[in-house]
Amino acid sequence: PFGGVDIANCNLLRASKDGDLDGIIDALEDGADINTRLPLWIRIGYVGSYAPVLDSDCEDGPLSEDMTMHVPESMSLTPLMHAAHEGHAEAVELLLRFGAQVDLRETDGMQALHFAAMSASTKCFRLLLGAGANLLAQDKSGRDALECLPIKRITNGHIKQEWLELLKEGSCWSVPVAQAKASDK
Fold first, then answer.
1. Residue 159: pLDDT band by 50, 70, 90 thresholds?
2. For residues 148 and 43, what is the distance between their CA atoms, to the nearest angstrom?
3. What's the pTM value of the predicted model, to 2 decimals?
4. Over the range 94-121, which residues count as b (16 or more CB within 10 Å of their CB) and which as e?
5. Chain-wide mean pLDDT for the chain?
6. 19 with 91: CB under 8 angstroms?
7. Which pLDDT band, with edges at 50, 70 and 90, does 139 fall under?
8. Could you tell me if 102 and 80 are in contact, meaning their C-beta atoms sit under 8 angstroms apart?
9. Residues 116/118/119/121 CA torsion (nearest 10 deg)
10. Sign of CA dihedral 12, 13, 16, 18
């Protein structure tokens, strides 16, 4: 039900989630879209013979035309969101070098920066901020990325120190805050 580009896109998503740098490069060389999302027919339930590759729990079955009209493209995560969620800083950096967009949103309005915070990865967080991610961007629940930090996870050891240092750096939020203040006037 799909062609080479669809396979490349699925491979890019998997490689990004796994932090597989060679897999990311291979998928992009095969024509994958850097900002791809899981194809609609896989999200809804048609996975055919590729189910083991995608680790999908979906059952095989045809996709009706009615189903395709009601599912927005933003339902699934981009490769950058997957890499950030798993805390794969090298993969985040590679995807950014290939032009991944930092401001795309998933169903709940979360961006890659939200996922980097959820993973408690200061490296991913810094990379995304450096690429222009907006620290003040809110999801549909009104949460900014810092509100997605897993407090219990970052209150111990070196992770706490890394986050305290990041939060003390004025450069990590001064640009978005300045932009936000300018737009309020």
1. confident
2. 25
3. 0.75
4. bbbebebbbebbbeeebbbbbbbbbbbb
5. 78
6. yes
7. very high
8. yes
9. 50
10. negative
Q: What is the mean pLDDT of residues 19-34?
A: 97
| Count of H-run helices and E-run strands, the chain | 12, 0
How large is the average pLDDT for residues 48-75? 39
Residues with Cβ within 8 Å of 34's Cβ and at least 6 positions away in sequence, in order, are: 12, 28, 79, 95, 98, 99, 100
Tally the residues of the chain: 185
AA letter at 173: W
CA distance 184 to 147: 22
- Over residues 143-169, mean pLDDT: 84
Neighbours of 173 (CB within 10 A): 18
Long-range contacts of 135-142 (CB under 8 A, 24+ apart): 135/172, 135/173, 135/176, 135/177, 136/176, 136/177, 136/180, 137/103, 137/111, 137/113, 138/109, 139/105, 139/108, 139/109, 139/110, 139/111, 139/114, 140/108, 140/109, 141/108, 141/109
CA–CA gap between residue 26 and residue 48 (Å, rounded)? 23
Among residues 167, 173, 89, 74, which one has the least CA distance to residue 124?
89
**117, 148 contact by CB (below 8 A):** yes
